[in-house]
Amino acid sequence: DAKTTQPNSMESNEEEPVHLPCNHSTISGTDYIHWYRQLPSQGPEYVIHGLTSNVNNRMASLAIAEDRKSSTLILHRATLRDAAVYYCILMSMNYGGATNKLIFGTGTLLAVQP
Amino acid sequence: GAGVSQSPSNKVTEKGKDVELRCDPISGHTALYWYRQSLGQGLEFLIYFQGNSAPDKSGLPSDRFSAERTGGSVSTLTIQRTQQEDSAVYLCASSLSGQGAFEKLFFGSGTQLSVL
Is residue B85 classed as helix, strand or coil in its secondary structure? Predict the structure, then answer.
């Protein structure tokens, strides 16, 4: 599985935008980029995913570099509730029989200051 | 239920005892995954089910760990002769088919296992 690299931690102020970077220089053409986050004492929750084009949903935006070797998760207005560990994960297409599992790295711990 | 349900939420056991952890996936989800997360660590994949079969058991740390799934629904993770290093949060997730790279996984809140 292709590997991702994220900063260990980041800080943000409440109501300001947050840009969480992820490098994935060995990404293959069929790998999807997924972001999950884990709030304290909870299981991970899905945030967003994309393949080539930028994506928006109610939680966040995902900006994908043209060469796909990096991506950025954008939280438009951070709230205290957004304090969590954010994981950037690559998932490959399952061509029959292979496990469609997520391999989690260490993620980025986001602290949000009031 | 609406989400993935795990029970018990907390389990305290003595070293050497067997424990069973239960996972109820989202109804209709054919893929089911077990992960564990030790204190301050990342999530470690344990096993993947497609229906009732487990084509990927590569993450099970030893033969003391086993899992089964019945009726394409409920799964049980069993740890025999528990050791202190088994203490962790055990997380279960499910997804619709397990076949697409664009699928979302839905996680339960986990079972906190403490081995004394």
Answer: helix
Cα(A42)–Cα(A46) distance, integer angstroms: 12
pLDDT class of A94 with cuts at 50, 70, 90: low
C-alpha distance across the termini of chain A, in Å: 38
Query: B66 pLDDT band (50/70/90 cuts)?
Result: very high
> Whole-angstrom Cα distance, residue B112 to residue B89?
4
**Among candidates B4, B35, B48 on the partner chain, residue whose Cβ is nearest the Cβ of A99:** B48
Q: CA A54, A64, B97, B30 torsion: positive or negative?
A: negative
Task: Count A/B contacts: CB-CB distance under 8 Å.
Answer: 68
Cis check: omega of the bond before B8, within 30 degrees of 0: yes
